[in-house]
Design brief:
The complex is a heterodimer of chains A (about 950) and B (about 180). Chain A has about 950 residues and is of the alpha+beta class. Chain A has a 7-stranded mixed sheet with strand order 3-5-1-12-9-10-11, sandwiched between helices. A 6-stranded mixed sheet of chain A has the order 7-15-14-13-8-29. The N and C termini of chain A lie far apart (about 85 Å). In chain B, a hairpin with a 2-residue loop joins strand 1 and strand 2. In chain B, helix 2 crosses helix 5. The chains are: A alpha+beta (about 950), B alpha+beta (about 180). Chains A and B meet through helix 1, helix 3, helix 15 and helix 16 of A and helix 2, helix 3 and helix 5 of B.
C-alpha cells in the first residue's frame, strides 16, 4: 500500500483511512497500517465473538488480539538455531582458567587430610581450594542447609566434592586433580533406603537437637484427614500395591557448567545455567561471606533444566572460590558422569498404596505410605516428602486420607526436584489403584473417575483451594478421541489401552524463603523510551520452556504491540527484579501476572494521553494493533507512538513495575502450606501399547494427552510441553533407571546406559488442550510444564494390564521385568504358552449405571458452579453426605485432622510410618 | 581431553573459511572447533558419541565431532550450525525449527540441524521413517521429537516449493501505523 504523508489530511482527531498524518521519529518499519481487530479474538464479555463457556475473566478487557493464544515461536529461538545461544560452557572470558573438581571415590568417609602441595607445584596450576576455604553450609531450603562447597569433615557419596583446582588448560587441571592426595577413613555406608530408618553409629548428617533419633531420617510426615476409621468398614473394594520406583535423572542435554569472574571493582559475576538464580544468589553470599549486592548472577541459556538445575550447586561455589584465589576468571564444565553425581533427580521410592471404594463407587479412602531415598543431601526433600502425599488428594473427592511419608539420607547422589516434583510416583500408584478398583467393581475406569471428581471452586480434604477444574473435559475428550469405548478390554492379547490422570500445582503458594515482609513472588519492570520498543526486566529464568516468550506475549497483548517490539532482559540479577525461579510450575502463572500488572500501568498512561490528544471518552477507548482508538468510532484514535510521546512529555521514558503475590489461603495444621497453590492443573491421558509377549518388550503406540492449562497463552509451547512430558514420563515408565550395584556404585552414569527414549521409542502424541479459564491465572492460564508428565506413567501401566493382564509394581517396565511378570502369570494360571493367556475383559456391573447417573448429575453441578459468581463454598466430604459449606472436621469429630501418629499406630506402623518410632533429640531429654 | 602431545599444524575449511591452526596432535575435533575455531555452536553433551549434540558435517556427511580426532578432519570441509545460514537468511530447517517448536532449550538443536540439513541436501522430500532414521543418533530431552519431525516436514515444503526465508534484518513493525479502512471494525 502506498502511503502519502500530507499533514492537511488529518481532520481534528479523526484520522482518514489509509493516510498517515506525518512520520514520527522511530517510524520506518514495515506494516505501516494497523491491522483490523479480529472480533473472533475479543471475548464476548467485551463485545467480541469469542465464546466463553467458562464465563468471563478479569483480564478480558486487556485482550487486544496481538499475541495471546496464538502459536508463537520462542522469542529466543533464532539464537538457538544459529548456534548463537551461549550456554554455561560457551561463556569465554579473556584470561580464563579451567577448573576441575576432585571427587570422593568412597561412599562415606571421614576426610583426614588433603595434601595439595604436588598439585600446586605443577606448572600451569594457578589455584587450589578445599573445604577449608568455605566453611559455611548452604542448601536450597533455608530449613535444611546441609551442603558445603567441598567436604568439610566427611564425604557423603561417591562423587562428593573434596577439592578443586584451576589451571591454564584442561589437561593441566586434570593432571593436577590426580596429584591432590586425600587420606580417608572409610565409614559404613548405607545404600538401601530402608536402612536409613534405623539408628546408625554415624548418621550421614547431624541436625543437633532436631535430629530424629540417631537415624538417617531427614524428614517425616504423618497426616490423617477425614473418616479414617470408617473407610475400611465402608469399603467393598480395596486395592493394595507395594511399589518400587527406581530413581531417575533429568538427563538434560547440557551438562552443568559455570564461569566465575571477580571484576576490578571486586564484584563477582557468576555465569551459570540456573533455574533459580535468586536462591543461588543467596547461597553465594552465605558461602563467600559477602553481601548479595556484591554479586551478579548471570543466567546463561539453560540447556534443559527439568529441576536438575534448581539447586545452588557446590561446583558453582568452587568456581567462585577458585576465581577469587586466582584473580582470573574460572570456567568449570562437568563431565556427564559428574552430572549424575550431583543428580537431584526423582527419588527412588517405596510406596505402599491403598485405595478403598464403597458400595456406591465412591473413593472412601486413600492410604499412602511413601519412603523416599534422598541420597546424601536434603535439597528440596522437605517439600518432596509432603508432595508424595498431599498432591494426590485431588481431583477425586475422597472420604479419608491417611499419609505417612519419610525421606532418608543414604550414601548416594542426592535426589531432589524433578519435573512433576514429588507427585509423579504416588500419582502413578493412585491411578493404577483406580484402575484396579474399577476392575473389582466391574465398571469403566473413566466413568469411575468422572463420578468422583471435585467440582470447580472447591476445597480438597487437605484444605487446598482449587479454583478452575477442567478434569471432566480432559477425561471426556480423551475418551472420545481415543475411541476408548470400542477398545477398552476389547483388544487382542498383547494390545492394550489405559487411562491415567494428573493434578499439579500451578506455582507454590509458599515461597521457599518465607520472609515476614509481604514480598511478591514475581516482579516485572517495563521501560519504554521514545523508540516505542518495550524493555522488559524480569528475573524469570528462561530454561527453554518459553518464559521469555510468554512474558513478551503478555506485555504485547496488553499494550497492543507486535512481539518484535518487546525485548526481554532476564539474565542478570543486577538488572532483573527478584524472581524466585523456574520451579513448581510458577513462571507463567506468576510472571505473566506480574507482567500484565506492569503493562497495565503503562496502558493507563497511554489511555490518559489518548484522551488528552483526542478528547475521546476514556472508557470508550480500546487498544488494538499499535493504535488506541474509540471502540464506537475507530477513526477516533492515535497511533501507539503518538500516545507514547504525549505520555512522555516532561518526563522521558515511561517505567512501570508490576508484581504478583499469592492470596492468603489454606489451613493451619502442620504442613498445611505444602502443596498449596493459587491454581492447579489437571490432565488425563489415554495410552495405547503393544506388549511383545515373547520378549517382554513394551512399546507405546499412541497417546491422547488432554491437559487443562487454563488458557494456552502459547499453544505451540503448551503442545511442546505436553509431548515433551510424554517423552520424559515414558522414559521413566519403560526404560530410565539409575542402577546401583549392591556395593552402592552407580552403574550407568552416562547417556548410553541411562536410556532416555530416542525418536524411535516416541509414540505419536495427540495433544489436547483444555481451557478452563482460571480466574486468577494470567488471561486464564495455569501451568503446562510439569503436570502433563504425571498421567503418562499410570496410563502406560494400565494399558499394559489391558494388554496382558499383569499389574506392575516396579518401574521401569523393562523387558526383563515384563518377561518375569508374564512368566509369573503363566505359572499362577498353569498356562504353558504365554500366547494362550486370556486378555482381561469387562462385563459392567449394576454399579456402572449408578456411576453414569452421578457423573451426569455432576456435569451439571460443575457447569453451574463455574459460572456462578455467588457460589457457596464446597468442601471435600459433600459426596459423603456432609454439609459442603463447612470444613467437615469442624462439624464431624470423625473427620478431625491429625498430624501426629497415635501410640496405637506405632505398634504396627507401615514402612515410612516407622520413622515415627524415633524421638527427636530435643524431646528425648538427653540432648 | 588428553594430555598435551605436542602441537602440529592443522588446516581445514570451517564454515566456508580456510582455517590454519596449530593444534595438539591428539586433539579431538570438538575441542578444536570450540576452543580454537570459535564454533561454540557445536555442543558437548555426553562426550561419548551418544547424544549427537556435537554433530558436524565433514565433507557434507554428519559426524560426531567428540569421537573424531581433529587430525582426521585435516584438509576437509567442516560445517557446524554456524555455517548453515546464508548471511541473515536462515536455512529453511533453522527457520522451521524456530516456527514449529523444534527447539525448546536449544542445546541439542545444533546437532539436529546439521544432521537434518545433510538429509535435506540428499533428499529434499524425506518420508517420516526417513526423517526418523536420520535423527536417530540425536537425543532431545525437551521436545519428544514430534515438533522436530514437524519442522523437517515444513522445511521440506519450503525447499520444494521454492519458498524464501526473510532477511532477519528487514524492518520490524512500525510503531506509528496509520489507520486503514479495514481497521474500522
Amino acid at each position: 500500500m502506498s502511503v502519502e504523508k500530507k499533514d492537511d489530511e488529518m481532520v481534528g482527531y479523526r484520522q482518514q483511512p489509509g493516510k498517515l498524518p506525518f512520520s514520527k521519529p522511530g517510524s520506518g518499519g514495515k506494516n505501516q497500517f494497523s491491522k483490523p481487530t479480529d472480533a473472533s479474538i475479543i471475548p464476548e464479555s467485551q463485545g467480541g465473538s469469542k465464546k466463553q463457556p467458562w464465563g468471563p475473566h478479569p483480564h478480558d478487557e486487556l485482550v487486544s488480539g496481538q499475541a495471546i493464544g496464538k502459536p508463537t515461536a520462542m522469542v529466543d529461538s533464532r539464537w538457538k538455531v544459529t548456534g548463537q545461544a551461549h550456554y554455561g560452557d560457551d561463556v569465554r572470558l579473556a584470561g580464563e582458567l579451567i577448573g576441575r573438581i576432585v571427587r570422593s571415590p568412597h561412599h562415606y568417609a571421614r576426610v583426614l587430610s588433603i595434601d595439595v602441595t604436588k598439585a600446586l607445584e605443577l606448572p600451569g596450576v594457578i589455584a587450589v581450594a578445599t573445604g577449608a576455604d568455605a566453611a559455611n553450609k548452604f542448601g536450597v531450603l533455608p530449613v535444611t542447609k546441609d551442603e558445603h562447597a567441598m567436604a568439610v569433615e566427611k564425604v557423603r557419596h561417591a562423587g562428593d566434592l573434596v577439592a578443586c583446582v584451576a589451571a591454564e588448560t584442561e589437561a593441566t587441571a586434570r593432571e593436577a586433580e590426580r596429584l591432590i592426595e586425600v587420606e580417608y577413613e572409610i565409614l559404613d555406608s548405607i545404600h538401601d533406603m530402608r536402612d536409613g530408618l534405623e539408628d546408625s553409629q554415624t548418621p550421614i548428617h547431624d541436625r543437633g537437637k532436631y535430629h530424629i533419633g540417631e537415624s538417617n531420617i531427614q524428614k517425616r510426615v504423618f497426616q490423617e484427614f477425614g473418616d479414617v476409621a470408617g473407610m475400611s468398614q465402608a469399603a467393598v473394594a480395596s486395592h493394595k500395591q507395594n511399589w518400587l520406583f527406581a530413581g531417575v535423572n533429568h538427563a538434560a542435554t547440557e551438562p552443568h557448567a559455570v564461569v566465575a569472574h571477580w571484576d576490578p571493582s571486586g564484584r563477582l559475576t557468576l555465569y551459570t545455567p540456573q533455574q533459580v538464580p535468586h536462591y543461588l544468589h543467596r547461597a553465594l553470599a552465605d558461602v563467600l561471606e559477602i553481601p548479595m549486592h556484591q554479586i551478579n548472577v548471570h543466567r546463561t541459556f539453560v540447556g534443559g533444566g527439568f529441576g536438575g538445575k534448581s539447586d545452588p550447586f557446590p561446583h558453582e561455589m568452587c568456581a567462585a572460590i577458585l576465581a577469587r584465589k586466582a584473580g582470573r576468571p574460572v570456567r568449570i564444565c562437568l563431565d556427564r558422569e559428574e552430572v549424575y553425581w550431583i543428580n537431584r533427580g526423582r527419588h527412588p521410592s517405596r510406596i505402599e498404596m491403598n485405595l478403598h471404594a464403597d458400595s456406591e463407587g465412591r473413593i472412601c479412602g486413600i492410604e499412602t505410605d511413601a519412603l523416599i531415598d534422598g541420597g546424601a543431601f536434603a535439597s528440596f526433600g522437605h517439600v518432596t516428602t509432603y508432595y508424595n502425599g498431599v498432591l494426590h488428594t485431588a481431583p477425586y473427592e475422597i472420604g479419608a486420607f491417611h499419609y505417612t511419608g519419610a525421606r532418608v539420607w543414604t550414601n548416594k547422589p542426592a535426589s531432589g526436584a524433578m519435573r512433576g516434583h514429588g507427585a509423579v510416583n504416588s500419582r502413578c500408584a493412585v491411578e493404577v489403584g483406580m484402575d484396579d478398583l474399577a476392575e473389582q467393581l466391574a465398571v469403566d475406569p473413566i466413568t469411575l473417575r468422572l463420578a468422583n471428581l471435585l467440582p470447580p471452586h472447591s476445597a480438597t480434604i487437605t484444605g487446598f483451594r482449587v479454583t478452575s477444574i477442567g478434569m471432566r473435559e480432559c477425561l471426556e475428550r480423551v475418551r472420545a478421541a481415543s475411541g476408548w469405548d470400542d477398545k477398552f478390554r476389547k483388544m487382542p492379547l498383547g494390545k492394550g489401552i489405559g487411562i491415567g490422570c494428573g493434578f499439579f500445582i500451578s506455582g507454590s503458594a509458599l515461597p521457599i524463603h518465607w520472609d515476614p515482609n509481604k514480598f511478591p513472588h514475581a516482579t516485572v519492570h517495563l521501560k519504554i523510551d521514545m523508540d516505542g520498543g518495550v524493555t522488559v526486566h524480569t528475573g524469570a529464568a528462561e530454561i527453554g520452556q518459553g518464559s521469555d516468550t510468554v512474558i513478551a506475549q503478555s506485555v504485547a497483548e496488553v499494550l497492543g504491540l507486535p512481539l518484535d517490539m518487546i525485548r526481554i532482559k532476564s539474565r542478570d540479577t543486577d538488572t532483573s527484579p527478584v524472581d524466585l525461579g523456574s520451579y513448581s510450575s510458577r513462571v507463567t502463572f506468576m510472571n505473566a501476572n506480574a507482567a500484565i500488572s506492569a503493562a497495565m500501568g503503562i496502558r493507563d498512561e497511554l489511555l490518559d494521553a489518548t484522551v488528552e490528544i483526542t478528547g475521546a471518552e476514556r472508557n470508550k477507548l480500546v487498544i488494538g494493533d499499535r493504535r488506541i482508538f474509540a471502540k464506537n468510532d475507530p477513526a477516533v484514535g492515535v497511533s501507539y507512538l503518538e500516545a507514547l510521546h504525549k505520555a512522555q512529555e516532561d518526563r522521558g521514558a515511561l517505567v512501570s513495575s508490576g508484581a504478583y503475590r499469592t492470596p492468603p489461603m489454606g489451613r493451619t495444621h502442620k504442613g498445611a502450606a505444602a502443596g498449596l497453590a493459587p491454581a492447579y492443573s489437571f490432565s488425563a491421558y489415554v495410552a495405547e501399547v503393544s506388549v511383545d509377549i515373547e520378549t517382554g518388550q513394551t512399546k507405546v503406540d499412541k497417546v491422547w494427552a488432554a491437559h487443562d492449562c487454563g488458557k494456552a497463552l502459547n499453544p505451540l509451547a503448551v503442545k511442546g510441553q505436553i509431548i515433551g512430558s510424554c517423552h520424559m514420563g515414558m522414559g521413566q515408565v519403560l526404560s530410565e533407571e539409575m542402577r546401583y550395584l549392591r556395593s552402592g556404585h552407580l552403574m550407568n552414569p552416562d547417556l548410553l546406559d541411562y536410556k532416555i527414549p530416542s525418536v524411535h521409542e516416541m509414540p505419536e502424541v495427540i495433544p489436547i488442550i483444555v481451557e478452563s479459564n482460571d480466574l486468577e491465572g494470567p488471561f486464564g492460564a495455569k501451568e503446562a510444564g510439569e503436570g502433563p508428565l504425571l498421567p503418562i506413567l499410570p496410563a502406560v501401566c494400565n494399558a499394559v494390564y489391558d494388554a496382558i493382564g499383569v499389574r506392575t509394581s516396579e518401574l521401569p517396565i523393562t523387558p526383563d521385568r515384563m518377561y518375569r511378570m508374564i512368566e509369573n502369570r503363566c505359572r499362577a494360571e498353569k498356562v504353558s504358552d504365554p500366547l494362550d493367556l486370556a486378555s482381561p475383559r469387562l462385563e459392567h456391573s449394576a454399579l456402572q449405571d449408578t456411576l453414569d447417573a452421578r457423573s451426569n448429575a455432576h456435569t451439571e453441578r460443575d457447569i453451574e458452579r463455574r459460572l456462578d459468581d455467588e457460589r457457596e463454598p464446597y468442601h471435600n466430604g459433600a459426596l459423603f453426605g456432609l454439609d459442603p459449606t463447612i470444613p467437615p472436621d469442624e462439624v464431624d469429630p470423625r473427620w478431625a485432622v491429625t498430624v501426629l501418629p497415635s501410640d496405637e499406630y506405632l505398634t504396627t506402623p507401615r514402612l515410612a510410618g516407622s520413622a515415627w518410632k524415633h524421638t527427636e533429640r530435643r524431646h528425648r531429654g538427653d540432648a | 581431553m588428553l594430555p598435551a602431545a605436542g602441537e602440529v599444524p592443522w588446516r581445514a575449511v570451517v564454515n566456508g573459511t580456510e582455517k590454519e591452526l596449530a593444534i595438539e596432535s591428539n586433539a579431538i575435533l570438538l575441542d578444536v572447533l570450540r576452543d580454537k575455531a570459535g564454533c561454540l555452536g557445536a555442543k558437548r553433551g555426553c562426550d561419548m558419541g551418544t547424544c549427537g549434540c556435537c554433530s558436524v558435517l565433514i565433507d557434507g556427511q554428519p559426524r560426531l565431532s567428540c569421537l573424531t580426532l581433529a587430525a582426521e578432519a585435516d584438509g576437509r570441509d567442516i560445517t557446524t550450525v554456524e555455517g548453515l545460514a546464508d548471511g541473515h537468511h536462515l536455512h529453511p530447517i533453522q527457520q522451521t525449527f524456530a516456527d514449529y517448536g523444534g527447539s525448546q532449550c536449544g542445546f541439542c538443536s545444533p546437532g539436529f540441524l546439521v544432521v537434518i540439513s545433510a538429509l535435506l541436501e540428499e533428499n529434499p522430500t524425506p518420508s517420516d521413517p526417513e526423517i526418523k532414521s536420520a535423527i536417530e543418533g540425536n537425543l532431545c530431552r525437551c521436545t519428544g521429537y514430534q515438533q522436530i519431525v514437524d519442522s523437517v516436514r515444513a522445511a521440506s515444503q519450503i525447499l520444494t516449493s521454492g519458498g524464501s526465508i526473510e532477511d532477519s534484518t528487514a524492518p520490524k513493525s512500525d510503531p506509528h501505523p496509520g489507520f486503514s479502512e479495514e481497521g474500522a471494525s
